[in-house]
Amino acid sequence: MPGRPLDRDDLLELFAELSAELHAEQTVEVIIAGGSFMALRQLRETTEDVDSVRRGSHREFAPLSPGLPPLATSLPIGSAMTPWAFAPHGLKATDIVFESATLAVRLPRHDDIFLMKLAAGREQDRIDLIALWPFCSFGSAAAAVTAFHERIPMADDDPYLVEYVSEIIDAAEH
Q: Residues 4-57: pLDDT tens digits?
């Protein structure tokens, strides 16, 4: 599978393969983020890698691979890592998209991914933000930016962020 974009079906197949290789005494829980979230929610056709969020003292955005079997480390997992990528405070995984005796793959709320992609600020993230907005509960650009600063306090202050989110909303509504 490496070397080509992954769609929703590819991701689910990847999780099944990974599950078969895990020998955990308890179920490993993974929270999917980034482009994989977008593909699994069918808001984007494909992704290049699989990023996840792990719970920890710093709640860092992390690759799926640490501590997983060889199959996981040979897959295109976590290649988009950057030092600023943190999960928002209050991150909640709401939906299970894959579950077995060894692996539970969950998806966070759309709001959480919106905030993470707002922090990332790449061109693909802008496209994803437009696709995400109709599923978010913020209600306004100002409310989204307030949530951004409250839930991702390590993010830099940007005086143009409300204007940028307003442009995202306008693009999503037209």
A: 899 999 999 999 999 998 887 888 888 999 999 999 999 999 998 888 875 442
> Hey, how many other C-beta atoms are within 10 angstroms of the C-beta on 114?
26
CB 148 within 8 A of CB 161: yes
Neighbouring residues of 61: CB distance < 8 A, sequence distance ≥ 6:
33, 34, 51, 53, 81, 82, 85, 86, 87, 116
Query: What confidence tier does 86 reach under pLDDT thresholds 50, 70, 90?
Result: low
Distance CA 7, CA 42 (A): 9
Q: Check if the beta carbon of residue 28 is closer than 8 Å to that of residue 104.
A: yes
